[in-house]
Structures are given as structure tokens and as C-alpha cells.
């Protein structure tokens, strides 16, 4: 495994330069593009890493998995009255579908759905951002996980489209808390800084029937894990979920910080990271690395 | 397994009456609704059946898998210049997305995509309908598989929406053969009559790395099988692909005749059938039966 | 004329009860539905009234004409870089078109366009709401015109959809001032209370080549008047602009308070009012009254 | 008037070269672009012409007015059960709106609406194309008006998008005759060749309360004329109806052959022609000429 990871890093690193670092906010645009890391954590407790696997980055939409886990944990199936689990077939931030479907987002991994999940969580936690940060610390086993307040503030400043989505849902009665407060929580979650190793550790429960391999904590039931993995498999990569299934064949979730997590059910939790994105907003080199990895070991679940 | 299938049939049969037989053409509307069958075919060559597993029915959109296999076989990756493999997020027969995306269908399992696949196949076979029928006979091992010409004629008569889609794609330059001829082929494919046993046999290669368990014929490469299964997993059940992943967790494809095929990679090919549909156009009882089956054995790939 | 107005009031009053008072905010829903008024003001300075022509009501979207006149007055043709003057073909508050057309509203008489106009005006006036109120007082000759602060506050509380539109435009770079401040101005404008007589007086300049018949003030040039009347003719009644042209044949603008103003170029300014709306959001009895009036005198400009 | 027309021709001719001749079919693309004509026919029976006013051209969508007049003549208000008279706010050949509004076209001057009108007429005439040609001959007083069969055949060959629209309407039950036959009629109508003088003569009844100034024939009632003019005013120039109202201020109808007819109610029928189109598909120089004409004489109805 270690040799394979090293080989993949070596073979995919030359692709750096073909993508484009997210620059919709200055705080993200400044990241050094020439970085690439991978971490694979097995259910046996073995950790394999290569490249910049220890460097923290902005997890961005990968935080949507944490949020969903929180919401499922305290509210269970009831959350599905507020949103669906179908692929959207639309760019990740489109309002067209949201309006046509009367304020019910397609799934929890597009921005609109994640905002509804944050709204649900906002009703359950006194300090939602701290609850999320503490969960990330606990599951990753890294007490140094922090929220990057500069990134969070910059996201808030450029909140226009997410604010539009939240108000549109409010107009359909599908947003219950103060829009501004939920947006602040949402941007705090996105601004968590974690490394590939942190994330591979943190999501081990998705590969291990709901029990964190690191801490032994039961996070969810085995059935809930297959459900969350199913949603990642059909909706985890924005408008490239089908491509990810076709090329990689694993449940996964990406963020515009360049990270992608993936799960080999019952075996491994994985995280790759490289900041440059393809036109669909997913890490260009990260995708390539995951495809090689999955192809070489034959990990596709299909 | 046999006991489980019998139990599932017994427990789900009472749901008959809650759905609605497809009636957009008279020839389909006349089917006896009170039918339910299941067939499971293992890579060891064992066949398990329960209920009306030997009764032929109209396979309808399940034929889209046959068409795609044909197209991949003779044209390989080149077909993806003509269509995608992303979920559509739209009702199965919507033209809105097709127009906004300039005549490129989202995937081969919505009607528009299947029409493009038929157009591709039309350029390769002298007699496309016979080629398809013979493939179905060969893979199912049943020389009695026939095209129901009454159903095909009735579908042709009610071709308006599919004709609209084909002409719209032609207007974007993404349809090369005579619209009418392709429509006739398409409806012939949909009008194939096969039983659950036929279909479980026919699709064994999708559970067996591309080799038909019945005949030993290599139909595709292992890599191609994971790709086709991936497309079924993300787009096989129209606007309920996410729901199918969440509830059943297997690659699958449904038809408005009430059939659903599913694949447990490396282990089983499955077909259930019950004519009544839910509002999304998928077999209501069939879905329930598959969910029970998958849940009880823990078959979800996620 | 007086006899005709009386007859129209008498013949259309029985239609009261067929429509529905706007009730999206409590402050509007409480209006007494059994009211109907009409005022016709000629370029000769004659005023004809019938029914409840002196009763002030919430002018709502009729204020969009005032806003547009302000914007044209200080910024001229430059405003058309920020929005268009084409009919929208969409419900008055849809965001679909706004997103597809990248934040450029179709015209100044749908909500999104009026918000852009308010944003333009916000950059020009120290106190936009007072500037608007004073303009309404001056043009109507009624110093008693006021902003109903209860209505304005209630609209603000239910601002979700308009806030969504404003933020969506901001995300496309087509909104320059603080969203909240502009929304407050916008709702203040909508909450102006004026009577049929006030409005017939106020809009006399649109029937009089740009000169207020009441005060003699030149408000705009003759060319600008034909332009504003043209926009009212093609876009003044939301999704019923075509119907209004077909049935009435005059430039006009409606509001959900039940008022409709209309212009007979070079001859008359008109206002009808009855609170009950048809499904398109226009005064049901008001439309009928205007149709009778226009038909009987042969006022259609077409 | 004559001097003004000559001046307009002289001043606008230099704009030739800025537009683009319609080239979606070869038979249209071959027209000499350097042509410009205008004809104005007064209710006093005076005819003024300038430039290439006697040169026949392909009237294309101007034929939609003839079709609508036919349909209104034999079926009256009943036609409005099959289509509307609202502006579409969409490109002239979009199917998106048609699907969302379940097969009911917005108005008779977009392609989909004109196809429904042709379908209505097809049920009323034994030989619809000849009926249309004879009507054009009678109203223009020119027995030499013919259908250009090369253009009609070429349009038929490139029928894909119109065929798609017709089948889509059929799928909603809003198309009653054989699609192919109606398409042939539709393309024959579009392929009529008439000059500016022919068209100014032919549409004199729209400026003359329904009576042809040329022949004295009553074509429609005065009320019907205001209705048809109203539809032209709000929907006659595809996605530029608002612009035409803003700039010209007259009811009008354009065709991709480069012709535009316009009506000064109770005074003049007008036709301009120049083959090059602007991006919205309307004659670039023709629009400019009409704007100058209307502006100089103060013809805007608004």
C-alpha cells in the first residue's frame, strides 16, 4: 500500500498546474497550489500516508458530512421532511431547482441542503460552531483542529448567493432560524482546518459500521452508515457524482479547498488533497489520484 | 435464501393495490396487477425463485441496459461524446434539461439518452431489433424470448414525447439516423417479453466481472462492468436513484412494466417484478421486496 | 363620462366576492373587500370620479412607476445597463429567470427589477423614502400622502423572497447598496397610501407629454413618457400584460393593494381600485371596470 | 412623407453589414444582403415607397399574422383554449416553457403557437397552403404572390426543432392533425414571397378597423383588429417585443427573411425589409428605419 501511494503521488503530481485554485474569496485564493497529499486509514488501524498528508487545509464542503451526521444523530429520519436524498443534476449552487421544488433541497450535500441541515442543527445546539469543532476534534483525535476565522469572515462577506438560497427557503417556510446566524455557523463549519490524516481518522466510522476506529466511539448505527455512504455515492461530488462513480466507484465527498474523502466500506477511510480544482469544483489531481488508487486495488463497490 | 424469498413474497404481496399499473398505452394497461415474482441467480450457478418468476412481462426500460451493453461493445468510450453518465435530477421524460444542455442527454438510462444509444446502434446493425432480441435470447438462454409486436405498435402510436425528444436532439446535431426508424427500434426493444428468471440469467455477467455465468460468454471487461453498474447505481431508477441507493444500496434498473433488475457485485444477479408502479414510475412492491432482501442479507454495497 | 363611470361601478360591483384580497401580510389582509372606486383625470383638467375614489389604499407595486420615474430623471438611459425592458413571461416573483439571466432583471415592473431601481435610487438620495413620499405628494397635490409604517414593517418582516432576489443579484454584482437598507426603502414605497384621485392626479404627466396637468411641473420629456408608457404596456401587469393589452389596450400598472393606473396617451390618466385580486395578482373588478371603460369609449391604443 | 422615407433609406443604408442574413437553411442564406425597402400605405389610399420596396422576399414569420387572421375568422375566441396571448419572455423556439406550461403555447407569434394555429386551420381547410396563398393574393391585390417551393422544401428538411415542438404539444393532447402534414403547411406559409408594397397593402385592414383599404373587403371586426394589434404589440418581435415598444411604439411583426410589418392604428400600414438580422432575429436596419420613422412623425401609440 505504501509503495502504491508513493507511486500515485509521483505520477499525479505533474498534473498540478492544470486546475485552478478556488478564488471566490481571497482567503482561499492564497493557498499554495503545489501541494498534494493522501492518507488511507484501515479498519485494522493502520495508517498510510504520502505527500502533504499532514498539512491542514480548509475542509469546506467536506464539513457537510459532519453536519449531516450531527443532524441524523439527534433528529433521525425526521430530517427527510425538510430535504431529500436524490441527486440534483444541477450546479451546486443553483436556485432554479430550489424554486421549482418549492424550497425543498434535493440532498444534504448541495449548499441549499447543507443550509437546511445547519438550520436543523441550529435549533439543537446552543453553540453550533463549537459543537461541530469539538466533534471534528474528537473524531480526528486531534485537539488542534480549529476554525479559520479569517476564512469564515471572508466567506460571510461573500455570502450573497447562500443568503439568497436561505431566504428563498425561508419564503417557502423551510428555514426556521435567523438567516444570518445560520450563515455564520455554516461558514464556520466550512472554515475548519484539517489535514488528510485528520479526515481519514475522522471518517473511519463510515468504513467501520458506525464505530470510530480511532476512539471506539459508536457514532451511528450500521444501517445509518450505509445510508450516508449511499447519499455520498449518488450526490457527494456536486455535478460529477456520476463521473466519480464511473471512475472511482466509492462513496465520497469533496470540498472547494481541494480535499476529497472516500470510503471503502468495511475496509478503509481515505482522504486526498490538492488545492487546484477542475471546472466542476472538485480537486483535479485528487480525483486522478483516487481513480488510480481505486483502479489498481479494484476498490470500486460496483 | 429460498426461505427468505418465500417470506418476502408473502410479506410484500399485501402491498399490491397501493400502486398503479402503467396505462399510457392500452397494451400495457391490461396486465393483471396481482402478480409478483423474484429470481436470484448466484455466481455459483444456483437459481432461486419465488412467486411469478417464470411469467414473461414487458421489460420496457430494462432494455436500456441491453442497448448500452451493445453500444459499449462496438463503440467503447466513444459513445460518451454523445451523452453523459451523470444523474439527471429530472423526471425521466423531461425535455427542459435536454434543451438547456444543447441536446446532450444526461445518461443512457433516461429516455433521451437511450434514444441516442439506439441511434448509435442503428448505425452499426443491419437489423437492430433482431440483434437486440438475439442478444436477449443468448444471454438469457431462452430461445423463446420475443418482441411483443402489439405493445411495440401501441408504443409507436403514442410516440409523441419520444419523437419530440429525438427531433430536439436532431436539431442540435446529436441524432444521425432517421427519427422514425430509430423510434421503431427503440419501441421494439422496450417490447421484449422476458421473465424474472430470464433477466436474472441475462444479467449474470454484471455480477460476474463480465462473463455470463450461464453461457460462459465474455460480454464485457471487468472494468466495463463496474462502469455500467456505476451508472445504474447513480441513474438506474429515474428520479429515485438516490432513494434506491439509500434503501437498497445496489446497482439497478427499472422498467414501467414493473420489473427491476439489481446486481450484487461478484455475487448475484436479481430480478423482481410486480406491475403496479409508484408515482416515480418504479414497481412499488418490487422496490419493497428488494429493500427487504438487501436489508436482511446486508447486501448494500455502501 | 360621469354617467358612464357610474354605470360601470354599478355593473361591476356585483363581481366583488369572486376575487381574493392579498393576504401574504396581515396588514394588507385586513382591508374591507367591498370597495370599488374610479377616477379619470383629463388633460383639460376635468376630474371624474365614482365609487370609493377618495379612499386611500396601499399603492404597492404602482410605486414602481414612481421609482422608475425617479431613476430615469437622475440617471437617464444608463439605468438600462442594470436591467431590461422586456416582458418576463414569468410570475412576478420568480428567481428562475433571474438566475438564468445572471442577475439582470427583465424589466422595472417585476419585483427584481424594481429592487434594482431602488438600489440605483438609494445611491442618489440621502433619504430615499422621503424623496419618494415628497414626489407622490407633489405630483398628487395632496400633502396628506403618507407611508403606512405598519404595512411597511409587516412587508419587511415577510421579506424573505425579496431578500433572496436582492442577494441573488448581489451575487451577480448587480446590487451595490446594503440589501437590508434597500429593502426598507422598497417596502416604504410600496406602503404609500393614496386614493384613486391622488393617483389619477399624480400620473397626469404620463398622459400629458411629461407635464403634470395639476402643477404644470415638467416631470420628463415627451420621448421619455412614450418609453415609460411602452414598458407599462408590455410589462405593467405581471403575467397578464398580454391580457391587459388584449382586453383594455392601454399602458397600465397594477398593485396587489387592488389599484390599477392606466393612461390614455394625450388624453386621460385613470385609476381604478378594488381590493380583491384575480389569480394573477391583479384587481379582478378593477380589470373588468377598465375593460368596460376602454371598450365603451374605444380607448384602446391598438 | 416621401422625402422622409428617402432620407431614412439614405441614413440607414450604411448600417448594412452590421447584421447577419439568416442562414439556418441554404435557401435563405443566399439572399443578397445589400437590400433595403420601405412601403407606407395610408388609409387615404396613398402609397409611399423607397428603396427596394417592390422586391419580393420570403415573408417567413410575418405569415403568422395571416394564419392568426384565418383562425380568428373561422373559429373566433375558441382558439384561445389552445394557446394564450401573453408574451413568452423566451427565445422564439424554446421548448422549456412549452413543457412547463403543459403544451399550451404562450401566443400565436412564437413558433409553437403558430404551429397550433396551423393545426387549427388544418382542420378547417381542404388545402391550407392554397387557402393561405389565395388570402395573401387577395389582400395584397397581387395575383403573382407565390409560395417558394425551394424554400419550403429546405425548411421541411431542417424541421427538427419545429417537429420536436409539434410532437411535444401532441404529447400533451394539444395537436390534433398529422404532425408532418401540418409542418408542410406551416413551411409553405413561411415560404410565401411578397414585397414591402404587397405587405403594406395586405395588412391595411389592421390600420383601417378591419376593412381592406385596397379591396374594400371586411376582413375582421374593429374589436378583433385591436385585439390582433394588441398581440402584435406585446409579442410580435420574439424576445424584443419590449424593445420594439420602447423604440418604435407600434404593433408589429417580424420575420427572419428580414421583413417587419407595423401598424399605425387608424392611419397607416407599413412594411420595411432588409435581410440582415440582429442577434434577436429581427431585421437590424429595418428596426432602425422604423424607429426613425416613428420618432420623426411621433407615431408611437404610447
Gross geometry of chain A: globular
Q: What would you call the structural class of chain A?
A: alpha+beta
Beta-strand segment tally of chain A? 10
What is the number of domains of chain A? 1
CATH superfamily of chain A, called what?
Answer: DD-peptidase/beta-lactamase superfamily
> What proportion of the residues of chain A form beta strands (DSSP E)?
5-15%
CATH topology-level fold name of chain A: Beta-lactamase
Poorly predicted regions of chain A are none
CATH class of chain A: Alpha Beta
Oligomeric state of the chains?
A: homotetramer
Largest interface, with Cβ-Cβ < 8 Å?
A-B, 34 and 35 residues
The main sheet of chain A orders its strands as: 3-2-9-8-7
Shape-level CATH architecture of chain A: 3-Layer(aba) Sandwich
Helix tally of chain A equals 14
Instruction: Characterize the largest beta sheet of chain A: strand count, sense, and whether it forms a barrel.
Output: 5 strands, antiparallel
Keywords (chains A, B, C, D): Acetylation, Hydrolase
Organism (chains A, B, C, D): Pseudomonas segetis
Protein name (chains A, B, C, D): Glutaminase
Family (chains A, B, C, D): Belongs to the glutaminase family.
Detailed description of the structure:
The structure is a homotetramer of 302-residue chains. The two termini of chain A are 22 Å apart. Chain A has 14 helices and ten strands. Chain A has a five-stranded antiparallel sheet with strand order 3-2-9-8-7, with helices on both faces. A three-stranded antiparallel sheet of chain A has the order 4-6-5. A two-stranded antiparallel sheet of chain A has the order 1-10. The longest helix of chain A is centred in the last third of the chain and has 14 residues. In chain A, a hairpin with a 4-residue loop joins strand 2 and strand 3. In chain A, 45% of the residues lie in helices and 12% in strands. Chain A has 302 residues and is of the alpha+beta class. The first copy, chain A, has a single domain, classed as DD-peptidase/beta-lactamase superfamily (Beta-lactamase), CATH 3.40.710. In chain A, helix 5 crosses helix 9. Chains A and B meet through helix 12 and helix 13 of A and helix 12 and helix 13 of B.
Amino acid at each position: 500500500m505504501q509503495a502504491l501511494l508513493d507511486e500515485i503521488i509521483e505520477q499525479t503530481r505533474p498534473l498540478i498546474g492544470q486546475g485552478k485554485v478556488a478564488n471566490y474569496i481571497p482567503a482561499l485564493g492564497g493557498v499554495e497550489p503545489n501541494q498534494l497529499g493522501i492518507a488511507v486509514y484501515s479498519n485494522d488501524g493502520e495508517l498510510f500516508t504520502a505527500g502533504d498528508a499532514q498539512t491542514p487545509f480548509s475542509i469546506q464542503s467536506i464539513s457537510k458530512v459532519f453536519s449531516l451526521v450531527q443532524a441524523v444523530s439527534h433528529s433521525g429520519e425526521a430530517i427527510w421532511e425538510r430535504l431529500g436524498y436524490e441527486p440534483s443534476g444541477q450546479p451546486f449552487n443553483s436556485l432554479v431547482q430550489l424554486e421549482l421544488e418549492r424550497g425543498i433541497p434535493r440532498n444534504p450535500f448541495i449548499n441549499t441542503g447543507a443550509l437546511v441541515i445547519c438550520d436543523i442543527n441550529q435549533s439543537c445546539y446552543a453553540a453550533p460552531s463549537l459543537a461541530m469543532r469539538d466533534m471534528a476534534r474528537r473524531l480526528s483525535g486531534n485537539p488542534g483542529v480549529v476554525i479559520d476565522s479569517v476564512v469564515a469572515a471572508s466567506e460571510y462577506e461573500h455570502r450573497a448567493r447562500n443568503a439568497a438560497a436561505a431566504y428563498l427557503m425561508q419564503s417557502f417556510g423551510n428555514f426556521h432560524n435567523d438567516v444570518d446566524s445560520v450563515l455564520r455557523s455554516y461558514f464556520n463549519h466550512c472554515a475548519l482546518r484539517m489535514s488528510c490524516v485528520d479526515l481519514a481518522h475522522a471518517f473511519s466510522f463510515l468504513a467501520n459500521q458506525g464505530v470510530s476506529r480511532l476512539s471506539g466511539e459508536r457514532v451511528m448505527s450500521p444501517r445509518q452508515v450505509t445510508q450516508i455512504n449511499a447519499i455520498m455515492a449518488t450526490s457527494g461530488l456536486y455535478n460529477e457524482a456520476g463521473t466519480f462513480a464511473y471512475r472511482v466507484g466509492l462513496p465520497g465527498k469533496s470540498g472547494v479547498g481541494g480535499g476529497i474523502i472516500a470510503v471503502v466500506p468495511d475496509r478503509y477511510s481515505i482522504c486526498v488533497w490538492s488545492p487546484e480544482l477542475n471546472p466542476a469544483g472538485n480537486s483535479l489531481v485528487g480525483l486522478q489520484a483516487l481513480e488510480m488508487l481505486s483502479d489498481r486495488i479494484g476498490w470500486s463497490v460496483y
